[in-house]
Amino acid sequence: MGLTGIQIFKLLPKTNCKECGVPTCLAFAMNLAAGKAELASCPYVSEEAKAMLSEASAPPIRPLTIGSGENVVKIGGETVLFRHEKTFVNKPGFAILVSDSMPETEIGDRLKRFNELRYERVGLTLRPEMIAIKNESGDPVKFEVLVKKVKSETDAALILMSEKIEALTAGVRVSSDRVPLIYAATDGNLEAMANLARESGCPITAKADNLEALSGLTEKLMTAGLKDLVLDSGSRTLRRAFEDQVCIRRAALLQKNRFLGFPTITFPCEMTKDPMKEALIAATFVAKYAGIIVLSDFRGETLFPLLVERLNIYTDPQRPMTMQEGIYPIGNPGEDSPVLVTVNFSLTYFIVSGEIESSRIPSWLLVMDTEGLSVLTAWAAGKFVGDSIGTFIKKSGIADKVKHRQVIIPGAVTVVSGDLEEELGPEWKVKVGPREAAHLPAFLKMGP
Questions:
Q1: SS3 161
Q2: Which of the chain's termini has less CB crowding within 10 Å, N or C?
């Protein structure tokens, strides 16, 4: 990045309006210099300043968007090599491959899996986002029909893949409102592909056999006025593709190579026919450093671990993963069901809720906001103590769901029971649970 935070600050309006999401223009300037913000977030920057700052404040890896509506895939925009330096920002999109040469039943099954394989975790919905549609038949009409089918039956962000400009033109024509990714521009079709991308306003993939050729190709596309590019280095072995991903990221971040400063697409589906090996290859590219990962198919036993890996890697390592504060019913509880309280550190929640489920005792689990701290750490920090727990319980609304007035606290914080009873009042009874969550099933089966 060419300008320092102070240099950028001098060009900002200095209104400290906070509309950009940070308290001061100086803080916003520092974020711009670090690649943590976009200039468009400032509503009052002058046109002259925009012209001077646009290139200087741009992230070294250009961000771009594929798709429309609620299911938009944003890739690129990264500013670091390692997540401990600053959290990775835009998680890679997972795509399932369908082809116009597949049987109708197989296409239907894959679209069904795309729509159904979704998982709730840490209050989030984990799901794949993309479908890569391949024109294997070479027939533009068949390709157009398949694009229409995928578009009408899913909310997927689309990748249109063909070696024929006629097929891609037909596919873009019926899906341009979905902002598909066009795949792919090569030295052999550069002019036609560039025209299609320019006329449709869709992002386009640049594909070459090596990084030197890829850099030359992107330079030509940028000269043609295209900026929303995705890179395919052409590698179809794990080792070489891994090396290319690292080299592209380092070239963009460390060497400021703007011709390689774009997100990438990888194809584990073309590197092996073994589904488990394909999943392992995909897991590698989640960490290093793919923007899009195309898989031959989705299966729950391989997709779910990939989604969880992606969630973990693209969560800020400096902030714990948390659950939303509130009441979590487990096992269809009723007015006589026990009430337990715990912290909102996600790992604690999953352990405690899992043990409650295994007990087969329907229960109400109150999850209190302790800023993501575990039970003992939150107690030591004064965030999980008697008066604050009592205030949370009274405001939670649990009294409207149960007719008894008994709450179970973790055994590790027995010391808060007296203060909690005092805060809740004489009608409430505080019961101390086991120190270890693993003992919850036996404890709950003992009854009140």
A1: strand
A2: C
pLDDT tens-digit series, residues 405-425:
999 999 999 999 999 999 999
Residue ranges covered by each domain of the chain: 5-53, 64-313, 326-445
DSSP state of 180: P
Exposed/middle/buried for residue 441 (C-beta within 10 Å: 0-12, 13-18, 19+): middle
Pairing of strands 73-75, 64-66: antiparallel
Angle (CA) 338-343-346 rounded to 5° is 110
d(CA 100, CA 133): 8
For 115, the token pair is 């729509």
Q: Whose CA is closest to 182, among 209, 221, 210? A: 221
Q: Which CATH number fits domain 326-445: 3.40.50.11600, 3.20.20.370, 3.30.70.890, 3.30.1360.70?
A: 3.40.50.11600
Q: How far apart are CA 21 and CA 32, in angstroms?
A: 12
Q: Which amino acid is at 117?
A: L
**In the predicted model, what is the mean pLDDT of the chain?**
93
- Could you confirm whether domain 64-313 is CATH 3.20.20.20? yes
How many angstroms separate the CA atoms of 218 and 226, rounded? Answer: 9
* Chain-centroid distance, C-alpha 150: 23
For 300-319, b/e burial (b = at least 16 CB within 10 A) is eebbbebbeebbebebeeee
Q: Tell me: the pLDDT tens digits for 398-407? A: 999 999 999 9
d(CA 367, CA 348): 10
Q: Locate 439 and state its tokens.
A: 């003992």
How many angstroms separate the CA atoms of 305 and 59, rounded?
30
Written as one string, the DSSP assignment of 67-107 is --TT--EEE-----SSTTTS---SPPEEEEEEETTS-HHHH
With contact defined as beta carbons under 8 Å apart, do 147 and 161 qualify? Answer: no
Would you list the DSSP string of 316-348?
-TTS--BPPSEEEEESS--TTS-EEEEE-BHHH
CATH of domain 5-53: 1.10.15.40
Across the range 377-390, mean pLDDT stands at 95
With contact defined as beta carbons under 8 Å apart, do 110 and 150 qualify?
A: no
